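Annotated sample (chain length 261).
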Amino acid sequence: MAHAKQTSTTVTDAGKAKGETRIVIPELNLPRVIFLCIGESSLVQQRFSEKSRQQMISDQEAGSTTRKGRKLPPKDFKACFEAAQHRTEAGGWGHPASAFRNAAISACRICNFHMTKGKLSIFSKATSLDSVDATPLVDIIAAPPEMNISPVRLPNGSLDMRARPMWKKWCMAVEMEYDADQFTEKDMYNLMVRVGKQVGIGEGRHDSKGSCGVGWGCFRLAESEADWKQACKEALQNPKSLQKKVTKKASKTRSKKCARR
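Output written by the structure step:
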């Protein structure tokens, strides 16, 4: 970690007589660097849906009596799956930019760096906005997600089945801004490596608040431009369409063999 620059203190002749000192604050230095993140495990997200938000508003406006005797409607898993996605204004998918900032701040604990200082020194920059609530997002480079239905432990201890989007292959170009008086560029690189390996992002990450995670949301940093391009190419390929091509090719091969016989 870079050592923080000490604030300089100037004492004038007049100040000496009065016992005064003048503190000089150094100029703010906030460079930016882009990290090319390549997913090593599935990325899963859970956006707080607009339907849930409106339901909470209605319940609070109506008062607690509305809960008595109310029957829960059937769960539409497809609708829940779509509502859990962060869609950008351009129609793509994104992940909250704050996830990378929060993960980097959390990783400071491993490096014996004060998280309170990290909170004021590390920032993530968005590339898009959520089309519904304008949440700052980082664009996800990947094929459309698949639906993942898995049990989730609620705060009251009960279980609930959640339908969430899952990207098994994904990439993100994350731009980070940092205080150069606290960190060097090499420090930030090492910190982001730890974020990808030890913290993770999204649902089921290692640093999940409610559990020990399931290993989702891990990533590595691209080693070269060629490595990045290849990873993006693989992430953008739709597994379903690839399976159809493989099946179609296999059926043609079988047909040719049968024709020869």
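Annotation: The mean pLDDT is 85.
Annotation: The chain is about 35% helix and 20% strand.
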